[in-house]
Amino acid sequence: MDAENTLQAIRYQIEQCQACPLAAGRLNVVPGEGPANSQIMFIGEGPGFHEDRQGKPFVGPAGNFLDELLGYAGLKRSEVFITNVVKCRPPNNRDPQPEELAACQRYLDAQIAAINPRIIVTLGRFSMARFIQDGKISRIHGYPHRVEGRTVVTMYHPAAALHQPALKDALIEDFSHLRDFLNQPAPSPEEQDFSDSAEPSTPENPPEQLSLF
Ligand code: URA
Question: Where does 32-97 have alpha helices with state H?
Fold first, then answer.
């Protein structure tokens, strides 16, 4: 089966899914969207009000900001795959629970395997935790990591920046560097210093973008 058909099969499975309590409250599943051959995959947290209504990821205010951020990376929404760690809306936009994340992980894993993106961009802490367990987003946002043979770049969630303007600058800065990673291998773990003694980054003191820039 090619990637396009595999994604369709995953979508069908998600539509039938009753594996966790989120199934009971959804209007629509939100499997994700984008070309099956996308080189970059963005992974958010979970559908909100607008996404649940439309069955599409990031179509509310956070999605509008994501579209703007993609522009800073020289990317169009139509050329990237966008999805979430959970495919059904948590009630009142609460955090996804561990059992919901666990129930949905198979779908995300299958999507990643089908698309085989060169770069995964995590948006927010739940998505980051799928790949990096001991990271602090304030320290490692914008950095490339090598995880399971792929480049994973951890970013703040766009919705967080809507509430904390200081994070907006950090997101714009990080997205502005994103395109460069397509042409560069990720640094080895030895080249990275995310130890607690490392200087934490802030919007005023952004992390050095390693040797790539
Ligand atoms: N926030 C997310 O994490 N995902 C969406 O699809 C929308 C808002």
Answer: 49-54, 61-72
Q: For residue 111, report the distance from its CA to the centre of ligand 1, in Å.
A: 17
Ligand 1 atom closest to 62 (CA) = 8
Q: Would the pLDDT of 195 be above 80?
A: no
**What is the pLDDT at residue 189?**
52
What ranges make up the beta strands (E) of 31-101? 40-44, 81-84
Better-predicted residue by pLDDT, 6 or 198 = 6
- Burial of residue 45 (number of CB atoms within 10 Å: 0-12, 13-18, 19+): buried
Q: How far apart are CA 178 and CA 173, in angstroms?
A: 9
- Angle (deg, nearest 10), helices 61-72 and 165-182: 50
Q: At what angle do helices 98-115 and 3-16 cross, to 10 degrees?
A: 160
**CB of residue 48 inside a 6 A radius of ligand 1:** yes
Domains in the chain, CATH or no CATH each: 3-183 (3.40.470.10)
pLDDT of 52 over the 60 cut: yes
